Amino acid sequence: MPAMHVRLGALAAALALAATFSTAASAQKKYDTGASDTEIKIGNIMPYSGPASAYGVIGKTEEAYFRKINAEGGINGRKINFISYDDAYSPPKTVEQARKLVESDEVLLIFQSLGTPSNSAIQKYMNSKKVPQLFVATGATKWNDSQNFPWTMGWQPNYQSEARIYAKYILQKMPNAKIAILYQNDDYGKDYLKGVKEGLGAKAASMIVAEESYETSEPTIDSHIVTLKATGADVFFNITTPKFAAQAIKKNAEIGWHPTHFLNNVSVSIGSVMKPAGFEASQGIVSSNYYKDPTDPQWKHDPAMKAWNEFLDKYYPEANRADSSVMYGYIVAQALLHVLKACGDDLTRANVMKQAASIKDFEPAGLLPGIKANTGPTDFAPLSQLQLMRFKGESWELFGDVLSGDVSG
Amino acid sequence: MSAAEDVVTEAPAVEAVPKRAMTLGTGTSLLVLAALLIMPVFVKNFIIFQMTMLLIYGLAVLALNILTGGSGQFSLGQSAFYAVGAYTTAVLMEHFNVNYALTLPIAGVVCFAFGFLFGQPALRLSGVYLALATFALATAMPQLLKLNFLEHWTGGVQGLVVTKPDAPFGLPMSQDMWLYYFTLVVVIAIYIFSVNLLRSRSGRAFMAIRDNEIAASAMGVDVALYKTLAFGVSAAVTGVAGSLGAIAVQFVAPDSYTITLAISLFLGMVVGGVGWLPGSIVGAAFIIFVPNIAEGISKGLSGAVFGVLLFLVIYLVPHGARQVAILGQQFAGKLRKN
Question: Is residue B251 part of a domain?
Answer without folding.
Answer: yes
